[in-house]
Amino acid sequence: MSDEQKQMRIDAGLVRELAELLSANELSEIEVEDGDRKIRVRRELTVSAAPVQHVVAAPQAMAAAPTASADSAPAAALEPAGDVVRSPMVGTCYLAAEPGAANFVSVGDTVKQGDTILIVEAMKVMNPISAPRAGKITQLMVANAQPVEFDQPLVVIE
């Protein structure tokens, strides 16, 4: 076999498609393996490329207690007061940097915008979740090492 035949042929379209998947799903690395061929596309996350935090304003509190009826929306009534930080991806939530370490935040802590409040691990990549604004942590809605879904509420900041 000549040296030319031994070299891997790169499918530029596949690499481009993998890079688009990284951006679209806010991942930092993706790897594809097909027989002897293995392609890994990776990008370094910077502060400006950190996962986007989804913040949803809580609905106004109702004056009277809601009654159970087909027209009522119980999910809206259960939304906590304050800004809800939601998971930008499916993964496992970690409240501390490593086992045995102190949690990034606890209920009652004051945070500044950009402070790391927890980590969501997705495909062996640790993705720090930052506070979208300054405020006080009023509720942690997940436990350490808990699996989380996309858009699942994680923390409430007032």
UniProtKB/TrEMBL annotation:
<keyword id="KW-0276">Fatty acid metabolism</keyword>
<dbReference type="InterPro" id="IPR011053">
    <property type="entry name" value="Single_hybrid_motif"/>
</dbReference>
<dbReference type="InterPro" id="IPR001249">
    <property type="entry name" value="AcCoA_biotinCC"/>
</dbReference>
<feature type="domain" description="Lipoyl-binding">
    <location>
        <begin position="82"/>
        <end position="158"/>
    </location>
</feature>
<protein>
    <recommendedName>
        <fullName>Biotin carboxyl carrier protein of acetyl-CoA carboxylase</fullName>
    </recommendedName>
</protein>
<dbReference type="InterPro" id="IPR000089">
    <property type="entry name" value="Biotin_lipoyl"/>
</dbReference>
<dbReference type="InterPro" id="IPR001882">
    <property type="entry name" value="Biotin_BS"/>
</dbReference>
<keyword id="KW-0444">Lipid biosynthesis</keyword>
<dbReference type="InterPro" id="IPR050709">
    <property type="entry name" value="Biotin_Carboxyl_Carrier/Decarb"/>
</dbReference>
<dbReference type="Pfam" id="PF00364">
    <property type="entry name" value="Biotin_lipoyl"/>
</dbReference>
<comment type="pathway">
    <text>Lipid metabolism; fatty acid biosynthesis.</text>
</comment>
<keyword id="KW-0443">Lipid metabolism</keyword>
<keyword id="KW-0092">Biotin</keyword>
<dbReference type="GO" id="GO:0003989">
    <property type="term" value="F:acetyl-CoA carboxylase activity"/>
</dbReference>
<keyword id="KW-0436">Ligase</keyword>
<keyword id="KW-0275">Fatty acid biosynthesis</keyword>
<comment type="function">
    <text>This protein is a component of the acetyl coenzyme A carboxylase complex; first, biotin carboxylase catalyzes the carboxylation of the carrier protein and then the transcarboxylase transfers the carboxyl group to form malonyl-CoA.</text>
</comment>
